[in-house]
Design goal:
Elements: E1 9-16, E2 19-26, E3 34-37, E4 60-63, H1 82-96, E5 101-106, H2 108-119, E6 124-130, H3 142-165, H4 174-184, H5 195-198, E7 202-204, E8 212-214, H6 230-238, E9 245-250, H7 261-270, E10 274-279, H8 285-288, H9 290-304
Parallel strand pairs: 3-4, 3-5, 5-6, 6-9, 9-10
Antiparallel strand pairs: 1-2, 2-4, 7-8
Helix pairs in contact: 1-2, 6-7
Length: about 325
């Protein structure tokens, strides 16, 4: 069997009450794919280097979460939060009439996969968590919460003014954006790999054709994080039983840390098919060290989502 190709894909648009959810379905479209969720402030391009290493008998549906990439922004006056992001998994399942879902998530996408798996475990048949289980940085901080409320209100006002004036955001060179990604990820993403995260988050300027401006909804920067107490996180972990779970951690990253230990212990005790691997690299191991990630993901998928007997000639058909 071969591997997926970035060229063998179909762009999809999933209706939402306020707009649409943009996605890209790679490979086999004759049966239920893996659903891939990106991290905070990223988009489906984050999986570009991993996709070509995955087996071609299984499709992968990567989505842009609301306010990210090419997906619609939330309506004005609504603030982003982690729980609503988790609900998106259910909306995708509803659109394609899936009774089960196979989840692959990075960072925030991994946290959302953990949340959803604990809330609806009967609908999840496997979970791949890359650099995230529970949010290691979520703390109830009144000062930060007050700041985010004010920041979000200011952003809503700014959006309203821009709509009236047809204002184009400040534009920059692609080199500037690549350096920005490199800096903001604490040099986890090289400037050479940065375009994978930029191609769906910037747009060419109409005023300065050699420059670009950001497409992101700035309200995502002040999203309400789900502050999980260790007690609640442990209780959520107890809801996930007898599931194949693969967890990949970057050795140089703090995202899976001591705070996760009780949750990981519970998951290990209740899921005999749990695997945990620490790989060389940082928070973006799936993008920067995709080969090492694929070395564990591919056999995991072959064990728990083995090839079906569907004829290859049928695989291009979009039937579920």
């Amino acid at each position: 069997m071969g591997t997926l190709s970035l060229n063998d894909c179909e762009d999809v648009s999933i209706p939402l009450p306020w707009g649409h959810l943009a996605g890209r379905w790679y490979g086999n479209r004759s049966e239920r794919p893996i659903l891939a969720l990106h991290g905070w402030q990223d988009n489906l391009g984050t999986f570009d280097t991993l996709i070509p290493l995955l087996p071609d008998y299984l499709g992968v549906l990567c989505i842009d979460l609301p306010g990210h990439g090419h997906s619609s922004r939330l309506p004005k006056g609504i603030q982003y939060d982690f729980v609503n992001f988790a609900f998106i998994i259910g909306r995708v399942m509803q659109e394609y009439k899936w009774s089960k879902v196979s989840l692959l998530g990075h960072s925030m996408g991994a946290i959302l996969s953990f949340i959803y798996s604990s809330l609806a475990p009967h609908t999840v048949d496997l979970v791949i968590l890359i650099e995230g289980v529970i949010n290691p940085f979520a703390r109830l901080d009144l000062d930060i919460s007050a700041f985010n409320i004010e920041r979000c209100l200011q952003e809503v006002d700014r959006m309203a003014i821009n709509e009236v004036t047809n204002y184009e955001p400040t534009s920059y060179s692609m080199e500037h954006f690549c350096q920005f990604v490199h800096t903001c990820t604490v040099e986890a993403v090289s400037k050479e790999l940065a375009p994978h995260l930029l191609k769906r988050s910037v747009h060419r300027s109409q005023l300065y054709p050699d420059k670009y401006y950001t497409l992101k909804d700035n309200r995502t920067k002040c999203a309400v994080e789900l502050e999980l107490s260790l007690e609640l996180a442990a209780e959520m972990a107890r809801c996930i039983r007898e599931k194949p779970v693969l967890i990949l951690k970057g050795a140089e990253s703090p995202f899976i840390c001591e705070r996760d230990e009780e949750v990981l212990s519970i998951l290990r005790a209740q899921n005999s098919d749990l695997e945990f691997h620490e790989l060389q690299g940082n928070h973006y191991i799936h993008l920067c060290n995709a080969e090492a990630c694929a070395a564990h993901i591919v056999p995991f998928l072959r064990r728990h989502r083995p090839p079906s007997r569907i004829d290859n000639s049928q695989r291009k058909q979009h039937k579920l």
